Input
Amino acid sequence: MKRGKDTRWLPDVLGPLEAAGHVYEYAPRPDNLSVHPGPLADEARSLGIRGLASAPARTGGPGRVEFTVWGTGGPADVTWEPFHDWLDDHLSADIPHMRGNREKLALTGGDERHAVVGVTMSSSWAAFHALHHDANTLPPLPPTLPPEFTHLWLIGAQASDRVLAWYPYLGWFEPHRHWATY
Output
């Protein structure tokens, strides 16, 4: 079977698991296949699959395969302390795109300099989960903004139903629920 970017081999491996009635309920562990014995799970492990979350396919419906990067799971409740730690580190990071963003906004000389940060599944779990539609609380602390930024927008770049914004005179808010008027 061919591996790598070509994933056409996946139905040949996952189909027999489904046909045999093997269901792997989601477990927040990166190697949940290790606790399931048998040749089908052994074959999946030999191909580099380390974890599965599955349920029987709907009658008449197609199967579905989704890929998830490890490290994008965590507690169901938003934990704001790790969120704030990630945000402060990210905004002040000495990496090219953040340096460029800070320099670009500083050069505008504007009174309001809005930083827009895209959050993806490769961001910390705390940041990704804070922008999930199930989250309904706001961060309790203001962000530690570099001097080049006056306002902040956090936007989910992957399947997010939530945007968070921080304005110095309003604090944190969700723009789709609260207009930022003076």
